[in-house]
Amino acid sequence: MTTRIFTAGLVVIGDEILSGRTHDKNIAQVASWLQVQGIRLAEVRVVPDVTARIVAAVNALRAENDYLFTTGGIGPTHDDITVDAVAEALGVAVVVHPEARAILERYYADKGGLNEGRLRMARVPEGGELIPNRMSGAPGIRLGNIFLMAGVPHITAGMLDALTGQLEGGAPLLSETIGGFIPESEVAGLLRDTEKAHPDCQIGSYPFFKDGRVGANFVIRSTDAAALAECSRALCDGLSAAGFAWEPGGIAPR
Amino acid sequence: MTTRIFTAGLVVIGDEILSGRTHDKNIAQVASWLQVQGIRLAEVRVVPDVTARIVAAVNALRAENDYLFTTGGIGPTHDDITVDAVAEALGVAVVVHPEARAILERYYADKGGLNEGRLRMARVPEGGELIPNRMSGAPGIRLGNIFLMAGVPHITAGMLDALTGQLEGGAPLLSETIGGFIPESEVAGLLRDTEKAHPDCQIGSYPFFKDGRVGANFVIRSTDAAALAECSRALCDGLSAAGFAWEPGGIAPR
């Protein structure tokens, strides 16, 4: 089965991630959301709040992928430079979006009104449309296949929700997980041979330690449901034949 | 004060991160560890288990930085291809490291002995030295300024621990955090002006939502302790003058 595969790149913008101060949650949530849209996250780059670094990452990943997402740097403060950097990457001007301005005027009407910082959040690269933000007024921005989203994870979640079903994707990547207290080093050959015998599937092996024992979850992935089922069955049979107990759905680590 | 700034790049390798199945914990722990070594994490790239993509990321980030770290893909299974990819990136052969082989022989002596999969973990790019792994036998690998580490976070933690103090770094980046239930959009001008008045410092603004209220933590960073203290004091004074209450150390979100 040959299907067009749609891919996306993600640029995570923020010194706070690179300093270790903030633990990123956007990679996982964007990745999971993309899976459901039938789009594969092909690469993530985490870059600091430096215009040239954002421009380079945006241009590299948008050239290689169908879609580009960014998280972070669209707030009201001086270190929020994503809009300017993406405009520079695209070679377009930065303009105040009238609808964004109106949204922010309403949102801040009883909170002291617009000021210079708040007005920053109405700025978009020319041609940008708005992605609704139910949480805090300031919208995300869509420019064709480029999506600029918030850094705060639950705001990004709302923006992703607003985009659900809006993007063209391919067949979603399906997966099945099988796990057990099985040292992966004892079944490496079985995993490799099973994958080789099922060319429409990939098998990933993810070791864990739980209650002082080693184990692994094996994730079989395919866009073809029948191939996936067949490969999963073959792996289960192989594990049983080798004397290992396994559980469908895998073992939750810790 | 001018000091040499040491930087590092990190390549996180693994389909499981890009599918959203596994939430990465290595970015934050490598970032925090590097801070203490006086090394700045300049960029992270998350790439899939595909040789060409690992090679490209490794070569890009090692060219731009003093150090390069990788996490993931050094286990016993067929999807563990980091050693081969890094060898290809460097243009060197893959060889079995005698000490790694001896370590694995001892580790697996009462667990069925070495097999093909386990022996995979003794392979290193030619010239590689070992990074001890107290947790599970299989060592990490050091090649000059390149460090190949595990994907399982607590194993990586042990490898980082073994490297503590071994790498040349510059002055560590110091930081102070001030936080409060302060809408960042009301102090954006103050933050910008305070940063501008203290050229040896950067100020980051990180909004949060807690108990239904908005707030922000402001992180002042500098390699110069005196400049840091002065800038922090100026920001505190400015917040107080604007009528905002703030707390040293910041507010823990949620």
Spell out the blueprint of helices and strands:
The structure is a homodimer of 254-residue chains.
Chain A: E1 6-13, H1 15-18, H2 26-37, E2 39-47, H3 51-64, E3 67-71, H4 82-90, E4 94-96, H5 98-107, H6 116-120, E5 123-125, E6 129-131, E7 140-143, E8 146-149, H7 153-163, E9 174-180, H8 188-197, E10 202-210, E11 213-222, H9 225-241, E12 247-248
Parallel strand pairs in A: 1-2, 1-3, 3-8
Antiparallel strand pairs in A: 4-5, 6-7, 7-8, 9-11, 9-12, 10-11
Helix pairs in contact in A: 2-7, 3-4, 8-9
Features:
Molybdenum Cofactor Biosythetic Enzyme, Chain A, 9 helices, 4-stranded antiparallel sheet, homodimer, elongated, 26% strand, 254 residues, alpha/beta, 2 domains, Alpha-Beta Plaits, 6-stranded mixed sheet
Describe the overall structure:
Two copies of one chain form a homodimer. Helices cover 36% and strands 26% of the residues of chain A. Chain A is of the alpha/beta class. Chain A has two domains: 6-163, MoaB/Mog-like domain (Molybdenum Cofactor Biosythetic Enzyme, Chain A); 174-248, ACT domain (Alpha-Beta Plaits, 2-Layer Sandwich), CATH 3.30.70.260. Chain A has a six-stranded mixed sheet, with helices on both faces. The two termini of chain A are 38 Å apart. Chains A and B meet through helix 1, helix 2, strand 2, helix 6 and helix 8 of A and helix 1, helix 2, strand 2, helix 6 and helix 8 of B.
The CATH top-level class label of the largest domain in chain A: Alpha Beta
**Radius of gyration of chain A, in angstroms, nearest whole number:** 22 Å
Main sheet overview of chain A:
6 strands, mixed
Subunit arrangement of the protein: homodimer
Q: Note the beta-strand portion of chain A.
A: 25-35%
Question: How much helix, percentage-wise, in residues of chain A?
Answer: 25-40%
Shape of chain A: elongated
How many strands appear in the DSSP assignment of chain A?
A: 12
Overall residue-averaged pLDDT value of chain A:
93
Q: Please, how many helices of chain A?
A: 9
Fold-level CATH name of the largest domain in chain A: Molybdenum Cofactor Biosythetic Enzyme, Chain A
| N→C terminal distance of chain A | 38 Å
- Strand line-up of the largest beta sheet of chain A: 2-1-3-8-7-6
- Domain count of chain A: 2
The CATH superfamily of the largest domain in chain A is known as: MoaB/Mog-like domain
Query: If interface size is counted as residues with C-beta under 8 Å from the partner's C-beta, which chains form the largest one?
Result: A-B, 75 and 76 residues
CATH architecture verdict of the largest domain in chain A: 3-Layer(aba) Sandwich
List unreliable stretches of 5+ residues of chain A. none
